[in-house]
């Protein structure tokens, strides 16, 4: 099961609750907690679009930003051997570790958006 839904520029994660016998979704990457649910996939998708539209209207009415802000600093944990390999690659190619990681991530995202799984 794909646990992600997309509506306009919104992405939501989805889980199934056995207790409630319902799909429960949450819109990710926004400044509020917005959840929705449905008994079927069709109900879930409909509830997602309604929740997203309500959130858009709320943000417009209150004059608040739709999305979370990110500062561009990302700390990651990788195995020491991977760190060493990145450092050697960057040195051999006249670039920095940061530039190597940024370029690698950007290439992966470009590929993902050309061939979306969402």
Gist of the model:
This protein is α+β, with helices and mostly antiparallel strands and 118 residues long.
Helix fraction bin: 40-55%
Strand content range:
15-25%
Q: Major sheet: size, sense and barrel closure?
A: 4 strands, antiparallel
Shape descriptor reads elongated
CATH class of the largest domain: Alpha Beta
CATH architecture of the largest domain: 2-Layer Sandwich
* Neighbour order of strands in the largest sheet: 1-2-3-4
List how many beta strands DSSP finds.
4
Low-confidence stretches: none
Q: Secondary-structure element sequence?
A: EEEEHHH
The end-to-end span amounts to 12 Å
The total count of helices amounts to 3
CATH topology of the largest domain: Double Stranded RNA Binding Domain
Structural class: alpha+beta
- Oligomeric state of the chains present here: single chain
Give the rounded overall mean pLDDT. 91
The domain count comes to: 2
Radius of gyration, CA atoms, in whole angstroms: 19 Å
Characterization of this structure:
It is a single chain. The protein is α+β, with helices and mostly antiparallel strands. The relative contact order is 0.11. A 4-stranded antiparallel beta sheet has the order 1-2-3-4, covered by helices on one side. The protein folds into 2 domains: 4-62, 2-Layer Sandwich (Double Stranded RNA Binding Domain); 80-114. The protein has 3 helices and 4 strands, in the order ββββααα. It is elongated, with a radius of gyration of 19 Å.
């Amino acid at each position: 099961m794909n646990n992600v839904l997309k509506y306009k520029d919104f992405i939501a994660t989805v889980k199934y609750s056995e207790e409630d016998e319902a799909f429960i979704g949450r819109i990710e990457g926004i400044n509020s907690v917005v959840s929705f649910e449905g008994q079927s996939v069709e109900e879930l998708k409909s509830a997602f679009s309604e929740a997203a539209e309500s959130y858009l209207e709320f943000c417009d009415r209150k004059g608040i930003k739709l999305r979370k802000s990110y500062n561009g600093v990302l700390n990651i944990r990788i195995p020491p051997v991977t760190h060493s390999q990145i450092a050697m690659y960057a040195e051999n190619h006249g670039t920095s570790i940061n530039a190597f990681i940024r370029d690698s991530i950007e290439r992966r995202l470009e590929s993902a958006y050309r061939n979306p799984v969402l």
